[in-house]
Amino acid sequence: MQVDNSDADVFIKKAIKEGKLVRGLRIVQKDGKVFIPVTERVEFRGAVPCFTDFQSRYKSSINRVISENIHSGEEKPKWQRIGEAIIFSRNYGGLETIARNLVESGMVKQVYVNHGKIDGKIRKPTLLLVAGEAGDTIYRENGVIFLTNPANLMMSKGNIVERGLPSMGDFRPVRVLDMFSGIGYFSLPMARLNSVKVVQCLDINGEALDYLSKSARINGFQEKIRCKNLDCRLFKSKEKFDLVIMGNFKSKDYLASGLGHVSENGRIILHHLELSENRYESIMQIMKTGRMLGYNLIPMDSHVVKSYSPHVWHMSSLFRVTWH
Predict the structure, then answer these.
(1) β strands within the chain, DSSP E
(2) Residue 120 phi, psi (nearest 5)
(3) Which of 207-210's residues contact partners 24+ apart within 8 Å by CB, and which partners?
(4) Residue 311, phi-psi category: left (phi > 0), alpha (psi -120 to 50), beta (remainder)
(5) pTM confidence score
């Protein structure tokens, strides 16, 4: 079916939900229109049935293209895919050829390579476009559609399981506060829950919040998601939240601000970095800080998300909060 470019993302979401999208064929863009292969008609305002010769989505594979073009003696490239974009960890011999082939084959739209560190408090990636046209990409994860711009906004696929908040168990909050929301890694999956009525999102990166708002509309969560562009320590609210999410490695430094927004018997999740020898002691340290601030923190879960660097671990810790 043919739709306007501006309606394509919403149409694709509807086609996927109805099980009508043909995933093995490549979507075609031409003259401001998008041609989307479907098994049968999808009712959508402005969509027009048409017949087009769609090419196979994948004539080869990403790994095959890489292996056929990598220079002899080079180590196997590390890369991650975010929607229609691929990001290589560093430059490799043959990367320009690999990138051009990936884009020309239609497997991806953008190929980037890291050429610097994550920049500043807003954690802006330092990427160089190798092939394709820079711009937005759609990324699907944990049943949620994310709209993002890989060149400007940080996104790590390595945390996909954690962003589904596996430690929550049967706890179903109504009001959620995400203190470092970014593009909605945690906010949007939480908004999927039927129990959740409000997700208050805070971030100092206004561009990230713009994309979060757009993703909320794409997913139909716009009535639940509220965004504020500010330092989370400056956020003031009379309402309390059943769940406070602190998805920042410096979350322990912001603990006082987070606890001030948790309802009685609510939950708080901290993401923090710990040395190997401090992984277990850190929980006691967080509880001690909570007591000094006037709260009892009862540990519900603490686990390693992944290795961050040699002898340093990314931890996720969940506490139930009661007041003195």
Answers:
(1) 2-4, 28-30, 33-35, 79-82, 85-88, 110-114, 127-132, 137-141, 144-148, 175-178, 198-203, 225-229, 241-246, 262-275, 295-309, 312-323
(2) 65, -175
(3) 207/149, 207/152, 207/153, 208/122, 208/153, 208/181, 208/182, 208/183, 209/181
(4) left
(5) 0.77
In 3D space, the residue among 108, 106, 156, 111 whose CA is nearest the CA of residue 131 turns out to be 111
Give me the amino acid identity at 113: V
**Contact between 177 and 267 (Cβ < 8 Å):** no
pLDDT per residue over 44-95, tens digit each?
888 888 777 666 555 568 888 888 888 877 788 889 888 889 999 888 888 9
- Note whether 14 and 30 are within 8 A (CB): no
Pick from 137, 134, 71: nearest CA to 98:
71
- Round to whole Å and give the CA distance between 210 and 123: 16
Chain centroid to CA 264? 29
Q: Pairing state of beta strands 241-246 and 262-275?
A: parallel
Q: Which amino acid is at 175?
A: R
- Tokens representing residue 141 in the block: 């994860």
Tokens of 63: 């790994």
